[in-house]
Amino acid sequence: MDRRYYDAIESNPVVAAVKDMEGLERCCEQEEIKVVFILFGDICSIGGIVQKVKNTGRFAMVHVDLVTGLGGKEVAADYVKQFTAADGIITTKPPLIKRGKELSLCTVLRYFLIDSMALENIRNQQHMVRPDFIEVLPGLMPKVIRKICRTSRIPIIAGGLITDKEDVVAALSAGAIAVSTTNQDVWRM
Fold it and tell me: Which terminus in the chain has less CB density within 10 A, N or C?
């Protein structure tokens, strides 16, 4: 992993996750935000969205699963690398993580923890594809985050349903390196 991404997240453990242009504008006004998770766009607009983030000196991570027109195949990572200035990708699909790593993109493997099988998938898949970060959602489960941190050498980002300082502190205290949130009040903490 390029140490710059880890350092940026560690220096400000609140990652702005943006789901529309209004959120992107507000995020770019927040000086302390270092890393932006882009959760919207389509193949025609994603290059411009990423460039807007990059123009402000931040790291741009594209959630390829949420970009309209990009499929779940490995070529989605190639598209992001070739047609945007993004620093990395976020996805729930291990083959995309593998391809992103081959392209020297920073990678975030996102998991939705809905049951014990999902938790077991983290243990099994992290060693196969070796993402730079694992994002777990919802991020309001300190006990589970702590368990994942004990079994994983990969830095953990807690995301989803993070709404206040107490949620941030709980996730970080459980061992997460950062939290990602679309909640703009949390960005300003």
Answer: C
